[in-house]
Amino acid sequence: MKDGHGYTVILQRHDGSVDFNRTYAEYWGGFGSPFTEMWLGNEYFHNLTSLGSRLYIELRYSDLSFRYVDYSDVIIDFYDNSYYYLRHVGPMTGNASDILHLYDGYYFGAHDVNLYRELCDCPMLNYGGWWDGCCRSPCGLTMPYNDPTYPFGWNCTAETTIKLMSVKMMVRRECFDCACVSSYMSVSGVYEITSPVTNNPILVECVMKDGYGYTVSTAGEV
User: Fold this and answer.
1) Cβ neighbours around 37 below 10 Å, total
2) Distance, CA of 75 to CA of 87 (rounded, Å)
3) Any bridge partners for residue 187, and if so which?
4) 60 near 66, Cβ under 8 Å?
5) How far apart (Å, rounded) are the C-alpha atoms in residues 147 and 172?
6) Domains assigned to the chain
7) What does the alpha-carbon distance between residue 189 and residue 54 come to, in Å, rounded to a whole number?
8) For residue range 134-157, what is the model confidence (pLDDT) as tens digits?
């Protein structure tokens, strides 16, 4: 839970106990444990962001500093029912660098599936999966935890004297109507959604019936 909202954790790392050099199929279905380190899975990532979802990344460093990036909307889509790509990256706020836009439009790859192998064949994918086939950044959140070749990091050019110790990447689906609210709430009531016009939070009265959410009335912006 964050700021009164529920987020789904996609990626979590803090000690290197889980090997992230996995096959494309493993990245598809997910691996690890929420009690240690994990990747939820690209199929779930796609389902959670297919209509656009907020993406929040927490970064904690060896000097005890905390940094974050907050993307207003991100969409993970797929091509030919199997190749996932970063279709859209929205505006970012936060006190860390905007690295994700480097990968906007790129397909996800791993050591056994790399659609860019003939184009640029980035060796980083031999260490961990990501939306990168051309080494747009010399480090990454799925790289080995203690390997200086392609280190675990977010922005290597700014992380020369400190080390990234932990990361948590999570998404929150933006709801624009009561039909969306019904996907996680079954009780009628007043709920906060995102206005499709202003993109600001508003309150709506929802009636839940037969598994569907119906909008009765709307209030002003929160």
Assistant:
1) 21
2) 6
3) none
4) yes
5) 32
6) 8-173 (3.90.215.10), 178-221 (no CATH)
7) 24
8) 888 889 999 999 998 899 999 988
